[in-house]
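request received
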Amino acid sequence: SQQGEEDPQALSIQEGENATMNCSYKTSINNLQWYRQNSGRGLVHLILIRSNEREKHSGRLRVTLDTSKKSSSLLITASRAADTASYFCATDKGQGAQKLVFGQGTRLTINP
Amino acid sequence: GAVVSQHPSWVICKSGTSVKIECRSLDFQATTMFWYRQFPKQSLMLMATSNEGSKATYEQGVEKDKFLINHASLTLSTLTVTSAHPEDSSFYICSAREGFGRAWLSNEQFFGPGTRLTVL
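response:
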């Protein structure tokens, strides 16, 4: 079963706007990762945030993590048409566990 | 760095045949590789975890005799779908985890581009 649940399932915005996607999880984690997947392609690692971190930036990406609420958000600023893709969060429970548990994903469409 | 390749990128086969998919880490040694399947517009479902030189660990509900996994070297894992049927049609993705270092500590996984299997 998938631990992560993402919200919204689909998001459509205009180019230049900001896009925010949320991810919730159920158990304690070691870290949380965000991935992007273009249609029919593999996953591209975007950013990893550790359980002791609250916010992380990478270019136009900003990720927050609230371990008390067991949730994370991914913000893409100044969106571009090329950002159109599915975005997945994945959690790692740590303690030697290697498996990543993926959320259901958010399908993001950027309209030109 | 940290590139993972898969071969083939797509395959069409007849029902009843077996199909082998290769996953290679091109510029690092992967002690652990993971195999996922993904149905259209759905998330990735982990099928199995393979560690170099040992038997794969399958997730609940995944038939080990149906999906044979071999991780014979630190750079290659193979998934063989035996006696494929139309319901096995899916997108199969592998990922690899480096054996040491920062990426290993953070459990960062590097994904292949996927293999689309269509069984007629």
